[in-house]
Structures are given as C-alpha cells and as structure tokens.
C-alpha cells in the first residue's frame, strides 16, 4: 500500500523568519558618545537633549528586522523643555525637603497621583517617536489602566503577602503590550500566569537560599566595626559577593525569563508572532559584567557595554510574519505631542520591553 | 546623479526600490521607480532629511507622509549640500574623541576640585540662618530619642563643661553664636558633632573619656571650627551637587548610570569631608596654642578614641573614611606651629 499522501497537505502561507540584528559597533558609538558629552559640557548641559536623541537614534537605527531598521523621532527641543520642567519639580521637592519636611508627604501623594500619568505618557512618547518602515508605533493606554496595573495590582500583591505578584506582573505586561500598536495594528499578549508563578517561585527560592548561606557564613552579624580575624573577614567577603549576586542576579535572571515569556506569547495583528530566547544566565552575566567593567574603566567602557547588550538582545529575538510587512498602514496621527510626554521621559521609567 | 534606495508610499510600510533625483533647476526632490515613473515630488525646502549619524540610513520625508530611504550617506550629502552634517564629521574622528576625552577629564577634575566646593561655599553663605536652624532642628529630631538620650552626667560636671565651653567660645572672635548640647549616646559612643546653626552636640561617653580639660577644649575648638566654616551646610550641598550634575549632563537618571558612579561619588564625598576635618584640626590647634595650651592633648585624645572604637588595627584605610587617618591627624596636631 502506498501510504504517501496523494497531495501535500495545504501548506501554511510561507512565513518569513527574521532574526533581529544589531549592526552598530562599540568603536563607532564611543566616538559619537564622547564627542556629544564634550559638547554637552561646553554648552553647560543644553546639548544634552540633542545628545540623547542621537544616542537613541543610533541604537534604534542599527536594530534591524530583515532589510529595515527602526527609527527614533523625538525632537530635542521638546525634550529640553520637558527636562527644564522636571528639573523645576525636583528643585521644588528638594527645597521642601530641606525647609519643611512635614510637607514632604504632600509631595509623595502628588507623585503617587501623577505616577500613572507619567507611566502612560512616557510609554506613549516612546511609542509615537518610534517607527519601522515609515509606520509609527502608538500607545493607547489610559490613566486608569496604568493606575490599576502599576498601583492597585502592586498593592494587592503586597497585601496578599506577594502571593499575587505574578498576576501583578502580568497586569503590567498587559498594560504595556496590549495598548501598543504598530500603525493601525494592535499588539496582543496572552501570558500563561502559571509559568510566571514558576519563575517567581524559582527567584524566591534563589533569594531564600542566598539568605540562608549569608546567615550561615556570618552568623547573622555584619558589624564592620568589630575587630575580626582573617577567616571571619573572608567569610564576610564571600557572603557579600554571594548576596550581591543573589539580590541583583535574581531580578536579572527573572527579567530574562519573563521577557521571553511575554514576547513568545505576543501577536501583532492576526499573523505576526515573536520569539525570544534570551538565556537568563547569559543575560545576568552581561548585566553584571557591564556594570563592573563600566565602573572599573571609569565609564570608558559604557558605550561598549551598551552595544554588547543591544547586540545580544537583538540576536535572541525573531519576528515571524506570513510574508512581507508591507501590508501595515499607519494611523492618521494628531500632530504634535503634549509637553507632559517629555516631562515624563525625563524620569526615564524603563519598562524593559 | 540619482541615488538608489527604497520608497514608501504615505503612511505605508510597503517598500519598493526607487531612486532620488534633484531636478535640473535644483528646486524639486523627486522619487522615481526603475521605469522612471514619478512616485513623489516636492519642493526641496518642504522635504526633511535626517542628519548623518554613524552608518544609519538617511530618511527623506515628504510632507504628504511618503518616505525615501538610502544607505548612500556620501551620495546624499553630495546631492544636497547643506546637509553634510558637521556633527557627524566630528563624531567620526578618533583624534577628536581623544581630545574630547581629555577635555572631559579636565572639566571633571576642575569641577570636583573647585566647582563643587566653591559653589557649595557660596550656597552655604547665602543660606539664611532660619534655614540653617530648620535643617539643624530636623537633624536633631531624627536622632533625639533613638541615638541621643538626655545626659546622665552629674550637674556639677555639666556646669564645669559649660564653663569650659563658654571660655573656648570666647577665644574665637568670629562672632558666631554657639550652644552646647550634652547627650547620653550609648549606641554612638564617644563623639561630638556640630550642627549648621552653631549647636554642638557632645556625648556623655566622650566627656567621660577625656582625661583633662585641655583634651575637651581641643574637641570643642574643633567642632566650633566646623561651625565657623559652615562645614555642615557645605557638605549637604556638596553631596547633592555631583548627582545633580551627572543627571543634568548625561540626562541619564537610570539605575545603570547611578550604580556605575556610586563608588567614585562616595570617594569624592569622603575626600571633601577629610579636608574639612583637617581644616577644623588646624583651626583648633591655632586656637589652643594661642591660649598657651598644647594641641598634643587633642592628638592623644584622638588616638585613645581610635584604640577604643577600632582596637589596635585601626579604623580601616583612610582613603575610604570621612576622617583622615588618626595617626596623620595626631602628627599634624603635634607639629602645629604656635601663631
Ligand atoms: Zn570634625
């Protein structure tokens, strides 16, 4: 008997797999970075807004999917204005702190009320100033949505002794992803919360384990004023290193896992999907060694560290689309952004994705 | 000369190969496909071209939302003079990068050596006494009850110290008002510190450690010198100027930036603080000598304090600490010339 099918089953429309690439180089970026800092100092800080835009443009413009790269469009003058306003707020806050600390509580209240707005605005600013192939991204999240995702869910997680933390994490990711659009096409994420529970559980175990080791090594005392012999000092040093790795490493590790999870469960429109396979170990190593080497080199390796991270992250991400991305259309966009978005961007709240 | 690249219709991600032309009269920028069909055209002035940056593709944006992009950076600079990007040329030169590095290092050094201390000094001078009072109140309030308890010294001893305090305060003709606060501080141990408004806190533990009145005089003169030079206020300003400058220059308030500068920032802060301590020691030595007392008493007292708090090995490396090494302080005090 011939078991071969008579005709090949209906093949799905040929899909394109495009792994992202970062094509910038550390040497090239170093020169751009250092010259821009010098110009910023010469202009007493005014040029910093232009420097920031050039930096962003360099990273966006060297991140390729297929034949095309992203583009960053923010106007330096508006960033400068936003910064001036944000700086004024910081100054007012510090003055309050120095003169009548009783009123500090009022500032915290004000900040809490403004936080959802800041988050919403900075996400919108980032999205609207990003484009790929002549089509801009957009963000439609609301104040109330940010309030729920970033304040109410977090409070609920704290009240329930962190047992709802994965749900809070998912609420943040949903707010971020599901309100984002590429042109007229919406992103849609559906994240299995069970996986998040597993990852958070692992991170918790790692931190608890590290705590146990630290307490074991130091006997629970960390009094640096007490005279101590060599062995005790060595044990303390090991404990401190261990603690640093656990407390900074666990979040980095967790960050890579949850990043993969979110991206692997995100669609753009009906047909475009994403794949991310960041290695948590490697990502943690990159974050750590970047901080360490930047510190040791007095900042000189900062450009190299940024390029290295961008290159690795790009390598790990793939976009799967049915065919060419040419079908995407942009939204008719209201002209001009509000000042609020630039103010928010000063605080540079980074949401990871 | 036409430039090869890609054309995107208004608001669309669909790309087609195309070429960019400048019309013969130099007034219009046109995009045509391989067959010569006109895809986009607009007066040159209404078209925006992105500035050159590294090897990034250049984008030519038409007012109607159409876009042309090309990787030929030199080609577009030749076609549209005036878009040659002086900044990009600066950013390509290794020699200029090295020069920038030197300039930044020099500016940073000047800023740390002169900029921060001088502006903090100026700010401290311009701070109204009422503000100093508020800051001092806040500092005290934060410590009172937790670290600072009411003094347990006998009344006679308290009076004796107050008399010494008034005497030492009288030596100094700076016109500053001082006030003495005696506090029991079992968790802090032997210590004394000056608040910005002239109040000086001395712990019972320090009083009990002093073997002679001259030793106490030395400590009081040292703290009064801190008040005279507004060291307290100046260090508050110095501590906030560096992070503010970093945030302003780099525009980067991210965790990564903060973490990488945390260590140098701490080192610079403690260097400033050591300088203040030295100044206070020097002033105290001059004052003591002028009254016919020997600064060596203060030196001996400092050595006893270190022995008590840190044992024979000393209190750790001096380049990390807020105070210079005790041995160096003691030697300097003993050498202090009579004036
Ligand atoms: Zn002192």
Compounds present? Answer: zinc ion
User: Strands of the biggest beta sheet of chain A: in what spatial order?
Assistant: 1-11-10-9-8-7-6-5-4-3-2
Q: Can you give the helix content of chain A as a percent range?
A: 55-70%
Report the structural category of chain A: alpha+beta
Number of helices of chain B: 11
Biggest beta-sheet profile of chain B? 7 strands, antiparallel
How widely separated are the two ends of chain A?
A: 54 Å
Strand content of chain A: 5-15%
Brief overview, please?
The complex is a heterodimer of chains A (353) and B (339). In chain A, 60% of the residues lie in helices and 12% in strands.
Question: Layout of SSEs?
Answer:
The complex is a heterodimer of chains A (353) and B (339).
Chain A: E1 16-19, E2 21-22, H1 26-42, H2 48-61, E3 63-65, E4 68-72, H3 76-99, H4 104-128, E5 130-132, E6 135-139, H5 143-159, H6 165-178, E7 180-182, E8 185-189, H7 193-218, H8 230-264, E9 266-268, E10 272-276, H9 280-296, H10 302-315, E11 317-321, H11 339-347
Antiparallel strand pairs in A: 1-11, 2-3, 3-4, 4-5, 5-6, 6-7, 7-8, 8-9, 9-10, 10-11
Chain B: E1 3-8, E2 16-22, E3 28-32, E4 38-43, E5 48-49, E6 58-61, E7 67-70, H1 73-79, H2 86-92, H3 94-126, H4 129-143, E8 149-150, H5 155-171, E9 179-184, E10 192-194, E11 199-203, H6 204-209, H7 213-228, H8 231-250, H9 255-290, H10 296-310, H11 326-335
Parallel strand pairs in B: 9-11
Antiparallel strand pairs in B: 1-2, 1-7, 2-3, 3-4, 5-6, 6-7, 8-9, 10-11
The structure holds zinc ion.
What features would you describe in this structure?
- The complex is a heterodimer of chains A (353) and B (339).
- Chain A has 353 residues and is of the alpha+beta class.
- In chain A, 60% of the residues lie in helices and 12% in strands.
- Chain A has helices at 26-42, 48-61, 76-99, 104-128, 143-159, 165-178, 193-218, 230-264, 280-296, 302-315, 339-347, and strands at residues 16-19, 21-22, 63-65, 68-72, 130-132, 135-139, 180-182, 185-189, 266-268, 272-276, 317-321.
- Chain A has an 11-stranded antiparallel β-sheet with strand order 1-11-10-9-8-7-6-5-4-3-2.
- In chain A, helix 1 runs antiparallel to helix 2, helix 3 crosses helix 11 and helix 4 (104-128) packs across helix 5.
- The longest helix of chain A is centred in the C-terminal third of the chain and has 35 residues, at 230-264.
- Chain A is globular, with a radius of gyration of 24 Å.
- Mean pLDDT of chain A is 81; it is low at 1-12, 221-228, 333-342 and 346-353.
- Chain B has helices at residues 73-79, 86-92, 94-126, 129-143, 155-171, 204-209, 213-228, 231-250, 255-290, 296-310, 326-335; strands spanning 3-8, 16-22, 28-32, 38-43, 48-49, 58-61, 67-70, 149-150, 179-184, 192-194, 199-203.
- Chain B has 339 residues and is of the alpha+beta class.
- A 7-stranded antiparallel β-sheet of chain B has the order 4-3-2-1-7-6-5. Chain B has a 4-stranded mixed β-sheet with strand order 8-9-11-10.
- In chain B, helix 3 packs antiparallel against helix 8.
- Chain B is 54% helix and 15% strand.
- In chain B, a hairpin with a 5-residue loop joins strand 6 and strand 7.
- The termini of chain B are far apart.
- Chains A and B meet through helix 1, helix 2, strand 4, helix 3 and helix 9 of A and helix 2, helix 3, helix 4, helix 8 and helix 9 of B.
């Amino acid at each position: 008997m011939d078991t071969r099918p008579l005709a090949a089953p209906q093949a799905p429309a040929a899909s394109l797999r495009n792994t992202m690439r970062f094509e910038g180089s550390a040497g090239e970026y170093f020169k751009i970075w250092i010259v821009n800092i010098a110009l910023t100092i010469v202009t007493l800080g005014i040029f910093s807004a232009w420097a920031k835009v050039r930096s962003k443009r360099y990273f966006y413009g060297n991140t390729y999917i297929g034949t095309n790269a992203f583009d960053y469009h923010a106007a330096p003058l508006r960033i400068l204005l936003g910064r001036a306003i944000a700086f004024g707020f910081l100054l007012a806050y510090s003055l309050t702190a120095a003169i009548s600390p009783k009123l500090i509580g009022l500032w915290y209240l004000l900040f809490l009320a403004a936080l959802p707005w800041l988050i919403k605005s900075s996400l919108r600013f980032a999205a609207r100033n990003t484009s790929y192939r002549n089509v801009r991204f957009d963000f439609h999240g609301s104040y109330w949505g940010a309030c729920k995702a970033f304040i109410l869910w977090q409070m609920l997680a704290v009240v329930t002794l962190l047992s709802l933390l994965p749900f809070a994490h998912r609420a943040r990711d949903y707010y971020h992803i599901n309100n984002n659009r590429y042109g007229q096409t919406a992103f849609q994420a559906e994240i299995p919360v069970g996986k998040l529970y597993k990852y958070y559980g692992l991170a918790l175990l790692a931190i608890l384990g590290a705590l146990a080791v630290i307490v074991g090594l130091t006997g629970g005392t960390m009094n640096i004023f007490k005279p101590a012999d060599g062995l005790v000092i060595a044990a303390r040093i090991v404990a401190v290193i261990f603690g640093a790795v656990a407390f900074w490493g666990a979040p980095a590790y967790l960050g890579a896992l949850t990043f993969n999870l979110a991206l692997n469960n995100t669609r753009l429109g009906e047909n475009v999907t994403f794949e991310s396979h960041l290695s948590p170990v490697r990502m943690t190593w990159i974050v750590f060694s970047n901080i360490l080497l930047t510190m040791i080199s007095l900042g000189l390796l900062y450009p190299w560290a940024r390029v290295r991270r961008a290159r690795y992250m790009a390598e790990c991400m793939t976009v799967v689309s049915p065919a060419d991305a040419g079908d995407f259309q942009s939204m008719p966009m209201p002209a001009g952004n509000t000042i609020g978005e630039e103010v928010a961007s000063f605080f540079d709240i980074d949401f990871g994705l | 000369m036409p430039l090869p690249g890609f054309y995107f219709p208004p608001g669309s991600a669909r790309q087609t190969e195309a070429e960019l032309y400048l019309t013969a009269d130099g007034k219009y920028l046109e995009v045509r496909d391989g067959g010569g069909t006109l895809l986009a055209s607009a007066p040159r002035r209404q078209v925006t071209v992105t500035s050159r940056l590294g090897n990034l593709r250049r984008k030519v944006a038409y007012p109607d939302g159409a876009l042309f992009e090309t990787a030929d950076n030199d080609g577009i600079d030749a076609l549209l003079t005036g878009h040659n990007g002086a900044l990009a040329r600066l950013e390509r030169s290794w020699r200029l990068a090295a020069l920038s590095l030197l300039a930044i290092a020099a500016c940073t050094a000047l800023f740390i050596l002169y900029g921060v201390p001088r502006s903090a000094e100026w700010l401290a001078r311009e701070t109204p006494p009422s503000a100093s009072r508020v800051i001092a109140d806040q500092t005290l309030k934060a410590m009172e009850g937790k670290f600072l308890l009411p003094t347990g010294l006998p009344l006679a001893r308290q009076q004796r110290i107050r008399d010494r305090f008034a005497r030492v305060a009288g030596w100094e003709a700076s016109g500053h008002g001082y006030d003495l606060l005696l506090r029991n501080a079992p968790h802090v141990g032997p210590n004394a510190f000056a608040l910005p408004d002239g109040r000086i806190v001395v712990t019972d533990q320090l009083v009990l450690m002093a073997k002679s009145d001259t030793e106490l005089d030395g400590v009081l003169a040292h703290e009064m010198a801190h008040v005279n030079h507004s060291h307290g206020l100046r260090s508050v300003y110095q501590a906030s100027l560096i992070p503010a400058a970093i945030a302003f220059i780099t525009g980067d308030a991210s965790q990564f930036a903060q973490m990488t500068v945390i260590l140098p920032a701490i080192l610079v802060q403690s260097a400033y603080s050591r300088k203040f301590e030295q100044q206070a020691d020097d002033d105290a030595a001059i004052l003591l000598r002028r009254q016919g007392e020997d600064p060596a008493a203060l030196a001996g007292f400092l050595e006893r304090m270190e022995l008590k708090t840190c044992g024979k090995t000393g209190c750790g490396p001096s380049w990390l600490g807020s105070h210079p090494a005790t041995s160096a302080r003691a030697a300097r005090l003993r050498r202090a010339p009579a004036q």
